[in-house]
Amino acid sequence: MAQLSAQHETVNLGQGFPERNPDPRLLALVEETMQSDRHQYASMAGLPKLRAIIADQLARRYDTDLSIDDVTICTGATQGLYTAITATVHPGDEVIIIEPAYDSYAPAVRSSGGKVIPVPLHGHDFSMDWDALRSAITSRTRMIVMNSPHNPTGKILYSPEFFRHLRDIVKDTDILLLSDEVYELMTYEDAKHLSILSDPELSSRAYVVYSYGKSLHCTGWKMGYVIAPPVLMTEFHKLHQYVVFSVNHPLQRAVAHYLETDFEDRSVADAFARKRSLLTDSLAGARCTWLGSEGSYFGVLDYSAVSDMDDVAFAKMLVRDHGVTTIPLSPFYTQGSSRKHLRLCYAKADETITAGAAILSAL
User: Fold this and answer.
1) Are 292 and 302 within 8 A, CB to CB?
2) Which residues have a Cβ under 8 Å from the Cβ of 262 and sit 6 or more positions away?
3) Which of 4, 56, 218, 238 is the most buried (most CB within 10 A)?
4) What are phi and psi of 86, to 5 degrees?
5) What confidence score (pLDDT) does residue 9 get?
6) Percent of the chain having pLDDT more than 70?
7) Quick one: 129 exposed, middle or buried, by C-beta within 10 A (0-12, 13-18, 19+)?
8) E-strand spans in the chain?
């Protein structure tokens, strides 16, 4: 879709990157660190100062105990996800993926010789199907991969009830958890992110993945981090040290200084809450149905009232004939989907949001 969008120079509500630059204060810190003499390798797990700040912030945010040994800096969340999977999944292992899902999970499982076991969210509200998850568990289950706030639906999956069901399913097993929480700071109104880090029983068997690309609006910097207990982090490092070794040293220093002096958690949600409202209001008169967004900067548009076309064909038609880019949801499923759903991204300039919504509302 990205290539097709570029060919037709469309209004782009599809690709998940912000149409804004990072805070100028952060950019000034990057320039300052680039002029320093710190241009050689950082430590393999990441700059100790940055890891200490992360451990402290997450400990306070989620009321948990963390040390710098629980933190590893990665070249983006995708590398963290890939390394966590390939370090622990072996040929013949089964990995359950809650779907629709970010498209990097399944290839990482397959590259390790694992088998993807999809468990789709169900209903119009994308709710968790606990019976389906229980039925998917076998003696070969190695890992369950989850994501909240959720891409592509914008739903917040995690709750005390979610964790209660999950604890019951994995107790007395060796099943690992991979929790993708890159949109942790993007929740709106009364919705709150509940991290797996806040549950000692679950976090003891979990890799939890975060992204500065999302929270600091700099996806092109490719900087994220992974949290895991020492026994899991040891396995992670066995691969990380040969795939990456260490992450951009000056950027780590700039981000560390920014986090301890200028960064406010709520500033991230505040930046996107208005964008979400603008998109919601702009789609108010549309025949398509905007299903809303509790978190992330994504949400789902149901176009079933407009067309019977499958989602891929419909999305391509929107690009070619109407000049707007969206993302079909079926590629987020291992076995596809017949639902009439498109993902919209509202991390865009106001004029992009209103122009795209106007086209969709006219369908």
Assistant:
1) no
2) 23, 25, 26
3) 218
4) -75, -20
5) 81
6) 99
7) middle
8) 11-12, 71-74, 94-99, 115-120, 141-147, 176-180, 206-211, 224-227, 289-290, 298-302, 324-325, 327-328, 341-345
How far is the C-alpha of 191 from the C-alpha of 46, rounded, in Å?
32
User: Does residue 131 sit in the same domain as residue 199?
Assistant: yes
| Amino acid making up residue 125 | D
Q: Show the 3-state SS of 287-312.
A: CCEECCCCECCEEEEECCCCCCCCHH
Structure tokens at 79: 């590398």
The Cα–Cα gap between 7 and 11 comes to 12
pLDDT, one tens digit per residue, over 91-108 is 999 999 999 999 999 999
pLDDT recorded at residue 159: 96
Work out the mean pLDDT of the chain and round it to a whole number: 94
**64 and 43 fall within a common domain:** yes
Q: Label residue 283 by pLDDT band (50, 70, 90).
A: very high
Residue 269 and residue 257 in one domain: no
- Please give the residue range of the domain that contains residue 339: 2-21+265-361
Crossing angle (nearest 10°) for helices 24-34 and 249-261: 140
Residues 6+ apart with CB under 8 A from 284: none
Q: Are residues 241 and 285 in the same domain?
A: no
Same domain, 90 and 6: no
| In the predicted structure, residue 124 carries a pLDDT above the cut 70 | yes
pLDDT at residue 32 tops 80: yes
* Residue found under tokens 């190695």: 142
Residues 248 and 341 in one domain: no
Same domain, 188 and 271: no
Instruction: For 146-180, write each residue's pLDDT tens digit.
Output: 999 999 999 999 999 999 999 999 999 999 999 99
Arithmetic mean of pLDDT, 264-272: 84
- Residue 179: closest CA among 203, 160, 155: 203
Question: Of the candidates 363, 273, 304, 356, which has an alpha carbon nearest to the alpha carbon of residue 15?
Answer: 356
Instruction: Return the H-helix or E-strand segment holding 240.
Output: helix 230-243
Q: How far apart are CA 252 and CA 218, in angstroms?
A: 13
- For residue 277, the surrounding DSSP H or E stretch is helix 265-282
pLDDT at 113: 97
